[in-house]
């Protein structure tokens, strides 16, 4: 298979030099059905230990302590000023968008998702439908648990970005769910010190939201990449769950919903997320659980087989900042609906100013799967630089999967 070279657009900072990745194909005929991935029998065996896995997955994650990278780190100080986001988001169990052994699949009713709960004494809050798959006519399959997690990480990051900007900090460290940490450095524009109080407040309010959304998207991408390279939150392999065709849109919608809730500033984040989530799902054409089941059946043996993904959605928006959903062909009434294009929030302009080069991010991995990733990267680096390294890692994944990038058209 021939691969052409072009540049990637990073989440933070300038485009890397020489970033390589295959161009998209618009011909679905280039896709060949992949056989079920190896390990299906081991997955079926592991499924018998479901209660133990659920207990581990629901136990949540522990934040890491900041390193000496940034002695003035805002995240390393007391969390008392970050209410109600004083702790990292609770763990939620996602679902693969098909039934089968060890997929944790369940459909969700978009009209009965309950009240969102950022935190709770229990992993599943009373009154909240924390998980399940919903099909949307214009956004494809959406995993409610992944959506909620992306929203909550956006909120967690935003309040910390806002404090750091207000104090003029030059760097900060934020935790990640896999055990690593995100090291962010800031380059303030020359106009920063000359802004009056009202202008600076407006900039900080909006900039902190967009930085948080972008970091949450990087974070979800990192999770998918790490999972493909061997990271697992349980004692069993989870590679099969990496880059499923519900993942990218779920993350994008989650960060969008959080952004709308945070901008509203009502003081009740959970209520705002609940309201905006319903509006967004309605806008995207969310269908009933029965219709979701029917949509899944339409793509059986085309996108999935026996709980195994036949294709992965490797177009995560890193080439152009856009994610295009996989829309089920001919659904619901013989007509293929138009998919919405989801865009990563930009930093130009923010309140009329250019902040494209404002934040630079490095990931201190803190996970054993990094050994597999760094072998692919030039120089065997100690840290992952998303702007530079994600394109290389994604190109390697695509070649290993023998897949072209996701077609811009629907299947």
Overall description:
By secondary structure, the protein is mainly alpha-helical. The protein has one domain (98-114, 127-402). 33% of the residues lie in helices and 8% in strands. It contains nine helices and nine strands. The chain has helices at residues 40-47, 50-57, 144-166, 197-228, 247-264, 269-284, 289-298, 370-374, 386-401, and strands spanning 133-136, 140-143, 171-175, 181-186, 304-305, 308-309, 322-323, 342-343, 359-364. The strands form four sheets. A three-stranded antiparallel β-sheet has the order 3-4-9, covered by helices on one side. β1 and β2 (140-143) form a beta hairpin. α3 crosses α4 (197-228), α4 packs parallel to α9 (386-401) and α5 crosses α6. The radius of gyration is 21 Å and the shape is globular. The two termini are 20 Å apart. Mean pLDDT is 82; it is low at 1-11, 13-68 and 407-411.
Keywords:
9 helices; mainly alpha; 3-stranded antiparallel sheet; disordered N terminus; 33% helix; 8% strand
Largest sheet: 3 strands, antiparallel
**What would the principal axes of the Cα set say about the shape?**
globular
C-alpha-based Rg, rounded? 21 Å
Taken together, the total number of domains comes to 1
The overall pLDDT average reads 82
The residue ranges in which pLDDT falls below 50 over 5 or more consecutive positions are: 1-11, 13-68, 407-411
């Amino acid at each position: 298979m021939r691969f052409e070279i072009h540049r990637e657009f990073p989440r933070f900072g300038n485009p890397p030099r020489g970033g390589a990745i295959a161009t998209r194909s618009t011909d679905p005929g280039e896709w060949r059905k992949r056989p079920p991935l190896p390990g299906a029998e081991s997955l079926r065996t592991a499924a018998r230990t479901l209660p133990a896995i659920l207990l581990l997955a629901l136990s949540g994650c522990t934040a890491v302590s900041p390193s000496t990278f940034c002695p003035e780190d805002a995240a390393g100080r007391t969390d008392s000023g970050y209410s109600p986001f004083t702790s990292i988001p609770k763990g939620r169990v996602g679902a693969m968008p098909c039934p089968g052994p060890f997929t944790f699949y369940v459909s969700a009713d978009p009209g009965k998702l309950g009240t969102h709960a950022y935190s709770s004494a229990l992993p599943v809050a009373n009154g909240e439908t924390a998980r399940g798959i919903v099909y949307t006519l214009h956004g494809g399959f959406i995993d409610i648990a992944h959506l909620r997690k992306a929203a909550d990480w956006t909120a967690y990051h935003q309040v910390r970005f806002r404090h750091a900007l207000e104090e003029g900090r030059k760097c900060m460290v934020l935790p990640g769910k896999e055990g690593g940490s995100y090291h962010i450095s800031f380059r303030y524009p020359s106009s920063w010190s000359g802004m009056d109080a009202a202008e600076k407040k407006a900039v900080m309010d909006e900039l902190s939201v967009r930085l948080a959304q972008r970091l949450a998207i990087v974070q979800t991408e990192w999770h998918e990449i790490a999972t493909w390279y061997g990271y697992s939150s349980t004692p069993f392999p989870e590679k099969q769950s990496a880059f499923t065709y519900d993942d990218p849109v779920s993350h994008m919608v989650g960060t969008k919903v959080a952004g709308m809730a945070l901008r509203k500033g009502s003081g009740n984040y959970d209520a705002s997320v609940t309201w905006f989530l319903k509006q967004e799902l309605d806008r995207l054409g969310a269908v009933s659980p029965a219709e979701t089941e029917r949509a899944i059946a339409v793509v059986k043996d085309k996108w999935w087989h026996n709980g195994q993904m036949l294709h992965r959605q490797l177009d995560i928006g890193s080439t152009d900042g856009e994610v295009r959903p996989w829309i089920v062909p001919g659904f619901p009434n013989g007509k293929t609906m138009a998919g919405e294009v989801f865009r990563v929030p930009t930093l130009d302009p923010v309140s009329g100013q250019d902040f494209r080069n404002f934040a630079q991010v490095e990931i201190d991995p803190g996970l054993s799967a990094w050994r597999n990733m760094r072998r692919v990267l030039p120089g065997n680096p100690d840290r992952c630089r998303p702007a530079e390294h994600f394109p290389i890692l994604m190109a390697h994944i695509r070649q290993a999967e023998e897949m072209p990038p996701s077609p811009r058209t629907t299947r």
